[in-house]
């Protein structure tokens, strides 16, 4: 007979994926999954459907966390982005498109506009395909109320749904060209890949060097990138192409391999539409050892003065 621990471990990837989409935080999602295990282990009776029980439990835990997190995010210094995720542990071939689209930075930021209940209903229904009876149990509302929440959430999401290049290979190829141009200091090569209204936005949280919160337009973004290229070159930074939240992206490391920042790209119509960077060290620790970005910046400045 399969033990509770074995059943839980089998479903852990699904539970994390639900919690991450609700919270936009790897650390908070992991905490929600752990709390779900504690409640499952302490439950005196074995649920009829372990998957339904655990999914409902992790959703309820995440909703409670999300309600308090919204206040903290309103007080956050500068733009707030989700903690970057390099790979989704949960795979479902039948829902691969929904899973990938819902994981992007753009989609997660769009979900931030929903109420906690709307967000939970939308994620459980539209992303993971749960039925309304299961969703009603998870969020503590009637099926009719959940259907209304789903309609409202879907309307909000459809109104702001991000556009992505349909061909994933083309997205990766264009991002690769962009990163090659960045490494080589090829300003013209960068400029031709940027949409006219491209945006560059950074999340440093006041805990890492931050050039500014937001730049809009190809010229402004090119000027910022042209300033950054020699700084990264002076510290021998490594630029590692890597998917970020199921979209093209890159990991920037110092010469010792510590993570300096994560970049994520939105690509559509053959051009880069958005560049989002995360350099807040509190959001990078789950990836690898984090570099001291302030030390790296001082090293780059000393090299420039030498």
UniProtKB/TrEMBL annotation:
Signal peptide: none annotated. Coiled coil: none annotated. The keyword Transcription regulation applies. Residues 106-156 form the RNA polymerase sigma factor 70 region 4 type domain. One of its GO terms (cellular component) is DNA-directed RNA polymerase complex. Keywords: DNA-directed RNA polymerase, Sigma factor, Transcription, Transcription regulation. Residues 8-70 form the RNA polymerase sigma-70 region domain. It comes from the Bacteria. Belongs to the sigma-70 factor family. ECF subfamily. Interacts transiently with the RNA polymerase catalytic core formed by RpoA, RpoB, RpoC and RpoZ (2 alpha, 1 beta, 1 beta' and 1 omega subunit) to form the RNA polymerase holoenzyme that can initiate transcription. PANTHER family: ECF RNA POLYMERASE SIGMA FACTOR SIGJ (PTHR30173:SF36), SIGMA 19 FACTOR (PTHR30173). This is DNA-directed RNA polymerase sigma-70 factor. It comes from Amycolatopsis deserti.
